[in-house]
Amino acid sequence: MTITCHLINDSWTCRSYVLETTPLREEYTPSYFVGQLLKIADKWGIGSKIKVVVANEDRVKREMKNAGWDLIPCFANTLDLVFKETLEASSDWKELVQRCCKISEYFSNVEAQGHLKRAQQMLNLPEQNLAESMGDKWLSTLNMLERISEQHKAIRQVLIEFNVDLLLSEHENKNITKTTSSLKAFQDVISTTKRYHSLSNILPQVEAIRKKLKELQQSGNEFAKELAQRLNHHFSKAKENDWLTLSTALDLRYRDVVLSEKGTSTRIRRTIIAEMKRLDEENRGRSFRQPDNFDKALRRYFEKEMLQSNWDPLAFWKFPKDEDWHLSEVARKYLPVVSTAIPADIAFDIEKARLVANRRSCLDPGHLNMMLFLNGNRFLDS
């Protein structure tokens, strides 16, 4: 388990620091998981400063509350769960993916790879090995299916030549196309993100994925329909989460995504004003900044023109006027929260994920901790 903290510093730059990598028991309890978090937070003296924890452990919600922290499920993990539940809902899709996993496993053999390479040369196809997958992660499965689709003629030639009972039917090949086009809806939206990005991206990304899946459904893609249903189930109450809605509302690229619904908009306004009043009480007598009318300050922000999606939302808050200081400090609280618990360049790259897993399996825990600590914090000034 690697713990990374995220914050916005005084120059309004979002910074991320790797704190520690610690081994977990093979069978660990939620209390043990949170206990490790508390231990590391105490070591760094930041327990009272932590506002929210992003993790891929849904079982630990109660323990997190007891520690005084809110829990945000890992976005990457939730998308994997959406995909897994979609497969479980239909034996046809599940069996298709399992069959493709067996094909990739067969061609992981060196001898079979040689046969595949010769077939690729004969058919003038790219000389690439098949991508492997366990079949329960959306991106690794997408990589696997795309490679099988690309190489299906070479694969078929080898399987027929050596009488291997793994041939795909024409119907199965069509379903592979439907599955890959559906999962590409995830990839097209997620692949544009940086290593770490704000929680404010989640609701806009979910809306973008929904739109792409809806287009696929209209063309008769049954897998896209199942995927959309599971996605809607997991994010049906997303706008009831203050961390999601407030971070989005305070990101001037996406603000109107959550202000378009009257009930959500009213709750956001009420919560932000309450946060501003709390800050005023905490800083009364210690700050030269004079509080403005909080309703007026918030209304000024809501009337601002939206930023383009490729602009930095933190730059907007960097030099607040005195009357907007309270609102900018609320933004500082909500905007540094990241939308995934693990680095996106590993979470969405199967080859890097496999490399890290292989290294972790044979490294001393102390050495691994130091390697990840130094690598994660290499940008720091000496």
TrEMBL record:
Domain HAT C-terminal dimerisation: 298-376
First-listed, main subcellular location of the protein, grouped into a coarse class: nucleus
Keywords, sorted A to Z: Metal-binding, Nucleus, Zinc, Zinc-finger
Annotated InterPro entries: HATC_C_dom, RNaseH-like_sf, ZnF_BED_domain_contain
Pfam family membership, one: Dimer_Tnp_hAT
UniProt keyword NAD present: no
Subcellular compartments: Nucleus
Protein's UniProt keywords contain Metal-binding: yes
Coiled-coil boundaries: none
Name recorded for this polypeptide: HAT C-terminal dimerisation domain-containing protein
